[in-house]
Amino acid sequence: MDWGACDGLCWTFFSVGTYSKVIITRMKVTLYLPLIIFLILGIFFFRALQHDPKILPSALIGQAMPSFTLPTLDNSKLISQQDLPKERFLLNVWASWCHSCAQDHEAINNFAAHNNLKIVGLNYKDDVGSAQNWLQQKHNPYAMIIFDNNGELALDLGVYGVPETFYVENNIIKKRVTGPLSADKLQELIA
Amino acid sequence: MKRFLDSFTCHSRGSGNPFLMLLFLLSLKAHGFEQYDLSSEQYLSYQKLTQELRCVVCQNESLAESNATLAQQLRHKIATQLQEGKSEQEITQYLSARFGEFIFLQPTLSPKNWLLWAAPFLLLLIGGWQILRMSARR
What we know:
The complex is a heterodimer.
Chain A: H1 9-50, E1 69-71, E2 78-80, E3 88-94, H2 101-114, E4 118-124, H3 128-138, E5 144-148, H4 152-156, E6 164-169, E7 172-178, H5 183-190
Parallel strand pairs in A: 3-4, 4-5
Antiparallel strand pairs in A: 1-2, 3-6, 6-7
Chain B: H1 2-5, H2 18-31, H3 40-52, H4 69-83, H5 88-99, H6 114-137
Helix pairs in contact in B: 3-4
């Protein structure tokens, strides 16, 4: 534009033109605002769809293992938190009456065959005889089994369904997985 | 996920059907919702707590309504702690330390969710402001 030739009326036209442009861009933004809000909400709702509300985060992550004194499954002795493996171990909550524990147990067995990480079993509100039968049939991968007949320790651990598995390091609970384990879930648990 | 949760029995309440409701009441009787030896004050606390706390297994039921074994165990825990003279607050702390915030049917206000609590009022403010602006323009 030749600015030298622009004076008086020309400037008026120019500024009105710029101003109307501002109004138009503003209107466009307000026009698209509902769409933008819709998209943002859409992202939230879509993410909520993938989220299973039945899987609860554990309140015990980062906390020490609760103290306990309970018998072993074979009732040979009483054990407490001091008898647990020192460095790292998995704590697997299971019961012979729980259907999906079979799938869980298979994953645990496979894992135990290729790993030397100790696995502690927590037998939950079970019958000793059927629990022992179950292990005979399906193999026993556990370094020790705590027999929690009343679910005391399970309550202190915030267990709300069987199976559940905790990963404990230096007496601190690091992670928890609810539901039957798989090779992937196990890798994630100890990662 | 359902498969692993079905290991606990959840008795949901009957729908509007009076026959089902009657059945439900009968099953209540048959299961014998536990009776605890509580003073009237403790009993009020017991009722309040079991109605405010969630059964984490049957997620939209309160502890008072649920027949899951875990709910039964938690009711027992609440009753015995009341008998020991624990306050309501001590008991809710005990339970939320184990099961997390989720145990409360009514979520508490925390830095994580204040926006959610404030959202209706914020939206109302923004809406009101918009209306004022639009009417002022005319």
